[in-house]
Amino acid sequence: MIIDKAEVIVTSPNRNFVTLKLTTDDGLTGLGDATLNGRELAVVAYLTEHVVPLLLGRDAHRIEDTWQFLYRSAYWRRGPVTMAAIAAVDVALWDIKGKAAGMPVYQLLGGASRNGLLAYGHASGTDLPSLFDSVRDHLEQGFKAIRIQTAIPGLKAVYGIAAQSSFTGGGEERYDHEPARRGAKPVEEDWETRPYLLHLPKVFEAVRNEFGPEIPLLHDGHHRMTPIQAAKLGKALEPYDLFWLEDCTPAENQEALRLVRQHTTTPLAIGEIFNTVWDFKDIIRDQLIDYVRGAVTHMGGITALKKTLDYAALYQIKSGMHGPTDISPVGMAAAMHLGLAIHNFGIQEYMMHGARTNEVFQQSFTWQDGLLHPGDRPGLGVELDLDEAGKYPYEQAYLPYNRLSDGTVHDW
Fold first, then answer.
1. Considering 122, 222, 298, 373, which one is annotated as catalytic?
2. Least crowded by CB within 10 Å, which of 164, 191, 209, 295?
3. All residues at 6 or more sequence positions from 91 whose CB lies less than 8 Å from its CB, including other chains
4. Tens of pLDDT, residues 205-231
5. Active-site residue among 71, 159, 291, 398?
6. Is 222 among the residues known to form the active site?
7. In this protein, which residues make up the domain named Mandelate racemase/muconate lactonizing enzyme C-terminal (predicted)?
8. Strand partners, 362
9. How far apart are CA 15 and CA 32, in angstroms?
10. Cα–Cα distance measured from residue 365 to residue 277, given in angstroms and rounded to the nearest whole number
11. Which residues contact 300 (CB under 8 A, 6 or more apart)?
């Protein structure tokens, strides 16, 4: 089963997506997600100029061999551009293999380990009444777990707040779903950590008082705290029993997580900006995290992320795969198949794509009673409508960035 055609497709229905489409000599097709938010064209060039010529004529069945070839033969390894490109190839090959076998990908990975995937939604508000309304809306949509993000007094725009509309991105999606704003330059936002640390525990106290102790609640710190600040926040949030505190401090310095662990029992989720098992190796081995936040799209595909999660399982660490709308429906489908099959699944991030995106990417997944399921179509269960995709050309977009009140650039 030989790959005889490889196409890199860029479309921007609600946001920019990069999709690799492989076709075999017997007419089977496979899709892979290569989207890297705000740097999409870098992956397009990597695929088009360097990877596609290497794929033509290869045996589509040889997934592991192809992964190792693309990773090792380049010499310059790792990094988000390289790994997103490899991921697109890997996922497309799993899609093809599933179609060739007449089975959904999760069956090829060992079959289902559960009936569906617990998913969390994203509630936000500029004040407590609007936050409560957002939580109720997500409960009505069927979510059983909810991430809580809130505006901070004195700050004009904070990550993940849908109602701060002056910073709304392109298309119809809410700010917390797609913060990348279309235009020639990134939007500048503001940040101060002290007001955040003072305000957030009060918000969680209010949410628990309003909705009770049963709902799993999550929060994303978005890499903005120093280790001691993260430790302080984790300890302050302990009375409100978080499912996890995500990205509490920049994880490049992984030793920092030791300090956080020393001071709080709040579970930690890390890794949405990681690219390989090497980024996770030490913090898994030393049990410094509770959930692996890697994305199929950014970790080199199903093949690589499954190995990482199998390693995490040795330490009772679970999956918490990245799943905002900069993961295309193809990448989300891959995450669902992987999550359904592995034993140490934890939770799946789930942001609902916009209507135009769902017209471009025709999907078989189901969402019922708070659980996702990828469906039972052979392969991934996603097909790309090229005519629809062609209606939405690429538009330059950047994620925002932060400055402190004194003008210092800060982590966004």
1. 222
2. 209
3. 30, 31, 32, 33, 296, 297, 301, 302, 330, 331, 334, 380
4. 999 999 999 999 999 999 999 999 999
5. 159
6. yes
7. 129-267
8. 383
9. 17
10. 28
11. 67, 71, 83, 86, 87, 90, 275, 276
